[in-house]
Amino acid sequence: MASPVTISVSSLVWVEDPKIAWIDGEVIRINGDEVHVQTTNGKMVVTKISKVFPKDTEAPPGGVEDMTRLSYLHEPGVLQNLGTRYELNEIYTYTGNILIAVNPFQRLPHLYDTHMMEQYKGATFGELSPHVFAIADVAYRAMINEGKSNSILVSGESGAGKTETTKMLMRYLAYVGGRSGIEGRTVEQQVLESNPVLEAFGNAKTVRNNNSSRFGKFVEIQFDKNGRISGAAIRTYLLERSRVCQISDPERNYHCFYLLCAAPKEEIERYKLRNPKSFHYLNQSNCFELEGVDDADEYLALRRAMDIVGISDHEQEAIFRIVAAILHLGNINFVKGEEIDSSAIKDEKSRYHLNMTAELLRCDAQSLEDALIRRVMVTPEEVITRTLDPVNALGSRDALAKTIYSRLFDWIVEKINVSIGQDANSQSIIGVLDIYGFESFKFNSFEQFCINFTNEKLQQHFNQHVFKVEQEEYSKEEINWSYIEFVDNQDVLDLIEKKPGGIIALLDEACMFPKSTHETFAQKLYQTFKNHKRFSKPKLSRTDFTISHYAGEVIYQADLFLDKNKDYVVAEHQALLTASKCPFVAAFFPPLPEDSSKSSKFISIGSRFKLQLQSLMETLSGTEPHYIRCVKPNNALKPAIFENINVLQQLRCGGVLEAIRISCAGYPTRKTFYEFLLRFGVLAPEVLEGNYDDKVACQMILDKMGMNGYQIGKTKVFLRAGQMAELDARRAEVLANAARTIQRRFRTYFAHKEFISLRESAIQLQALCRYAMAGKQYEQLRQEAAVLKIQKKFRQYIARKSYLSLQSSAIALQTGLRTMTARNEFRVRRRTKAAICIQANWHCHKGYAYYKRLQKAAIVSQCGWRSRVARRELRKLKLAARETGALKEAKDKLEKRVEELTWRLQLEKRLRTDLEEAKVLETAKLQDAVHALQLQLDEGKLMIVKEREAARKAIEEAPPVIKETPIIVQDTEKINSLTTDLERMKVVLQTEVQSKEEVKEAYNTLLTEKKELMKKLEDAEKKANLLQDTVQRLEEKVTNLESENQVLRQQALAISPTSKALSARPKTTIIQRTPENGIVLDGGTKKVLALAAVPYPREPETEERPQKSLNEKQQENQNLLIKCISQDLGFSKGRPIAASLTYKCLLQWRSFEVERTNIFDRIVQTIAGAVEAQDNNDVLSYWLSNSATLLLLLQRTLKASGAASLTPQRRRTPSASLFGRVSQGLRASPQSAGFSFFHGRALGLDDLRQVEAKYPALLFKQQLTAFLEKIYGMVRDNLKKEISPLLGLCIQAPRATRASLVKGRSQANAVAQQTLISHWQNIVKSLKNFLNTLRANYVPPFLVRKLFTQTFSFINVQLFNSLLLRRECCSFSNGEYLKTGLAELEQWCRDATEEYVGSAWDELKHIRQAVGFLVIHQKPKKTLKEITNDLCPALSIQQLYRISTMYWDDKYGTHSVSAEVISNMRAMMTDVSNNAVSSSFLLDDDSSIPFSVDDISKSVQEVEMADFDPPPLVRDNSSFAFLLQRSD
Question: Which residues participate in catalysis according to the annotation?
């Protein structure tokens, strides 16, 4: 599909992309065969010009319905068209007469109702939009008109929607060809209701599809001569029997097993069933339920479908009895018996299931046991009975289960066919083929082999009828035609089915030999097909083989091929079930002939399947085929996801692209000569008037119209694509010109005649009218002048009189009011002054006394109370932690921190108490000592005085002179002794004074220490209070989470049980808030809201109409809101208008408080559509700002239902002041809160009204949080992608340009340096542009800081790792270069300010320190301590060791660190490795989301809801009048 259009510079083209298959871009440069394309994601792609395809710039925005009409028919054009239509839920698209159906993975009921069927009934193909009904109608009309049978082939891989498409086809055929049946049962009902029955017994959950058909189905719908359905037949192919016994996780067994386990209680007790997890055939996988499917309801639906298709109650009971028996059969286990190679029932549990199986199958339990573990071998001499070992016994059990289920399924199909009834006289049928798609899993066995063989056959059929038949038609007409090659898979079919050397033939041959194993079978395949181009042997495998199918290579495991190809009917099993007392079971196993009654009958499943497939192909060859290609848009099975590569591969495998190319490269339009002349003869009337041959006439018309490339065959004209439309346009133009000529002449005559008559009458009428009007106008003007004069005088008098009266009254009132105000103000001031004085004295006395009382007990009471509160809160946290496992780790840390702080607080308390006691005791001791010394000093002085008095008295009373001398001597001695004692007392006193001074100094030291301890105690108290606040916030967060979880669980329980409960739920009428009913009066509003919340009883239709119109009005308002926010509304005063508008509308409409609404889903879808795969940073920044603002408003507004009652009230209540009461009153009033909010003032944390949020609002908040994180990640990754190649240039730049840095050439050096630094300048430029984009979109600075922090961390990781991994980068000159670049980044950080950059510069610490190490001089003189502590504290020892060993100086030739330092580093590395610490020296890039919603909420102290002009879409809408209210 090479491009036929010349590619030039500036052309818009498509180029291949490994991620999205094809991407568009603009051609920048063309060099010969190479073309340079600048893609839309910013990449430059260089490719061959032959691999570039032009892009249609004028393609319709919604795509085209038939892809043959595309201007450029190539892979990217087809892919874009399908993707564009899929986004619009247009899942059907034509490719000629082929329908492509893309699975929407959601219900679209509007596409399949009866009205839609009526529209397509009888409509011309292509007249209406593409639809599966159109294909069914074409097949039906072709059958009616031509009397030929038709077939519709529905193909596609598993999960593409084949089964659902088949249902829709049969519904439409039943609609157009239905007729009333006999006895109240119609054929079409039975055909449609056969689907649930067959799905229950033949469908199962696989890895790719929850309802995958594990069998092929061809439905023949038979019609009578009047086009009415007269009968039907269903053929099935290759039921996957092994699934009954073997399933893999996360798949499921057949649906019927799970439906029966969910049956009503009485039926479960009847069959002795339990939970599916208790049965071996079901518990091999962990998947037991399907999302959105209620097995109990499905079971009842299955029973109803069985009734419709004609299965009686007795037969239904027998069917489910057999299904239950298979489940019990799977729980029978075996152990080794007493004899060699024998087995026995394992335990009583297995014995119970054995008896239950026998009871359900109505056979003897001992006979069942013998049939499972014993085999009878008939020889010419004797009959030998042998027992099976446990492994073979399990195989016998599984073989019996598979045989019974296979026979049951065949019986159900046959019963459906008999019940529906076949019309033997019918000559026309429409066959609908629904068969498994191409499968390629990790492990592919015999089932995948047969499925892919079927798809190869169908692909060949598709090739033959779409490609080969097209070419044969051209050859038959003998026109020039160049055959276009297509993929023919005949060689693959020969590889599989050819006799005698095909894989199936070799498999049958291996099954006939008892000693054959899967290894011998694989070796036989290797030898036979070793040179076959479609067959290969995988490496390192002994049994696997690979087949190159049309859709790709598939590796098959041949381990179970032999077992799965055999279909043994064991004689013992045959005899057991033939003897069953249940006629239904016995009918499955009719008696065998005598010669085979004692042996096993071998049947090749592969050969039987090949014969069935051959019969199917013969049937299809006898019908007119129609094709529907089902496409699975994504492997996640989710809506709104279109994976280009996945879809493109399916289109290639289905041959759709090849069909498009053939159709448009050939001649899609064919007309016979007569038809062509009849239609286009008006284009050349002279040709029709001449006597020309039809062939010549056709050629003359085409030549006249300038047509090129057409072909004229024997009987037909063949036109290229688009030529038919051009000829029709020319024909329509000719016919329109002729019609306009006739109309022009006819209208001219009548118009001229009427004009003459009207002109004469008009002249007379105009004269009379003008005369009368002039008189009236003059009289009116005269009267108006008089009236104006009278009015002027009267109004002047009235106004003057009113003014004088008002002036005198105003002066009197002003005088009185001013007097009264002055007196009141004077009185108030006098009283206030007196009260202030009294209160000041009383408060001083009261406060001083109260302070003294509380000062002693404050610390002890606070500590005790805080400990008590902390223990109480700790107990609450422990209780809360049982349901909040996510916060368990944080709780444990907080518990330890609380205990540690409590212990430290108690310790400091005890230390302070001991210190106080020691201080008091020491002070008391010192005071006692001083007091004792003072007493001693006083006693000494008193004694001295007494001694002096005694001496004086003794001298006065002395005897005569003869005794004078001795007395004097004695007194002198006493005086001397007293003096000595006095001196000694002085010394003691001085010693005591010095001791007192030392005690004072110690006391001062103790006081200083006390102050320090008090300061530490205050710090500890602050930390304890901070920790307590943290614990409180975490408790509140835990409580809120519990409340939200409780609400979510209640909502889930409320909406999940049954449809009956949903239907019984009362409807709640939601009344939109308007100025009339929402803001006027509080009382009235509350009454209206109370009435609105009451569920209304069912009223007549007349009362439902207002509600319906109200809901329609709400829907219109929601549509307008979605349409508004989908546009770029910009910003107002730094706040995003879209977020403000959305929040105001949701709050006004009370959307947060309703149980069910879709407005949140629509908002989320709008945001998702805007940011999906967006590379435009401006758009992403815009939505990042809106999402953050809206989420912040929701975070501070919404609270879970019941959260207020569950949240501990630990915060102090506001003071009972007038302002506090007013603020509380405002918060308590929803109307006043909403009114104040909408007036655009700055709202703090407590100003936003708290709303009891319901489940949709909480879910919307979670989704918005996820989108905020997603958009943040996209913006961050875009910035990383933008600077990543520049970082690579920075790392490689020194090596690339260092050769030009030659000493002595300053000019060359300057140029080289400028070249080197330009890469860093480009990085700075990118950062600057990115910051400007974020600031222009008013992204919160907190997010900007986080974004640049992670970006700088990414730069740090990239540069640092490159430095450690490349020795040439670890050099002195490279360090200088990096240092210069880092200086550029540092300067940018300064210019950007800390508000937007934050600590981003600190994230470069590793590369900064590494560069600093590279550029320092005298490295050998540095010690290890200096390096690790001063130069590079952030680097690990492994990183330092690697830098030191890799360093080389390419500029000055200096050396690295000393050998001693290297040795010490090596020793430290050994110790680190012994301590089991990671030895990796590379850094990891952190791509996580570095913030939470609480972080954003804390970073923004207030939410400013600025005024903004409503968008034009809602400005004039009365429903949005609340947006026009402004602040004062």
Answer: 158-159, 163, 209, 212-213, 437, 439
Q: For the residues of 309-337, what is the DSSP string, one character each?
A: TT--HHHHHHHHHHHHHHHHHHT--EEE-
Q: Tokens at residue 1324, please?
A: 């700075």
Alpha-carbon distance values, 890 to 469, 562, 596 (Å)? 73, 59, 75
Between CA 848 and CA 856, with CA 850 as vertex, the angle to 5 degrees is: 105
Q: Which two tokens stand for residue 977?
A: 């002794």
Examine the pLDDT at 1203 and tell me if it is beyond 60.
Answer: no
- Which tokens is 1321 given? 């300048």
Higher pLDDT, 340 or 366: 366
Q: Tokens for 1355?
A: 């730069």
Stretch among 698-702, 769-773, 1262-1266 having the lowest mean pLDDT:
1262-1266
What is the reported pLDDT for 1502?
A: 60
**CA–CA dist 1349, 1362 (Å, integer):** 20
Radius of gyration of the chain (CA): 49
* 3 state DSSP class of 24: strand
> Which H, E and C letters describe 223-289, residue by residue?
ECCCCCEEEEEEEEECCCHHHHCCCCCCCCCEHHHHHHHCCCHHHHHHHCCCCHHHCCCCCCCCCCC
Query: Could you tell me the strand order of the sheet in which 716-719 lies?
Result: 669-672, 716-719, 711-712
Which of 91, 24, 15 has its CA nearest to residue 51?
15
Q: How crowded is the C-beta side of 620, counted as CA atoms within 13 Å?
A: 25
Contact 44, 37 (CB under 8 A): yes
> Are 328 and 357 within 8 A, CB to CB?
yes
Q: What is the mean pLDDT of the chain?
A: 78
- Three-class DSSP labels, 1288-1311: HHHHHHHHHHHHHCCCCCHHHHHH
User: CB of 69 within 8 A of CB of 660?
Assistant: no
Rounded Cα distance between 1157 and 1255, Å, is: 10
Q: What is the pLDDT of residues 81-90, one digit of tens each?
A: 999 888 877 8
DSSP strand pairing (624-631 vs 98-102): parallel
Amino acid identity for residue 1047 in this structure: V
CA distances from 56 to 24, 96, 1105, 1362, 1363 (A): 10, 20, 49, 44, 47
CA 364 to chain centre: 56
pLDDT for 1368? 66
- Going by C-alpha positions, the residue among 620, 575, 682 that lies closest to residue 460 is 620
Does 1198 have pLDDT greater than 50? yes
Average pLDDT of the residues in 208-218 = 82
Rounded to whole angstroms, the maximal C-alpha distance in the chain is: 202
Helix, strand, coil in percent for the chain, rounding step 5? 65, 10, 25
CA–CA separation, 301 vs 628, rounded Å? 29
| Pair of tokens at residue 598 | 């004692």
φ, ψ for residue 545, nearest 5 deg:
-145, 155
User: What pLDDT sits at residue 736?
Assistant: 85
Tokens of 1107: 């509600």
List the structure tokens of 1276. 């961050």
Contacts (Cβ under 8 Å, ≥6 apart) of 359: 365
pLDDT tens digits, residue range 219-265?
888 888 888 888 888 888 778 888 888 888 888 999 999 999 999 99
**Residue 994: in which H helix or E strand, if any?**
helix 964-1055
H or E element, residue 544? strand 544-549
Backbone angles phi, psi at 204, to 5 degrees: -155, 165
| Omega within 30 of 0 (cis) for the link into 250 | yes
Residue written as token pair 């108006």:
784
Lookup: tokens for 994: 């010095």
For residue 1222, how far is the Cα from the chain centroid? Answer: 45
Q: Model confidence over 676-728: pLDDT tens digits?
A: 888 788 888 888 888 888 888 998 999 888 888 888 888 888 887 657 657 87
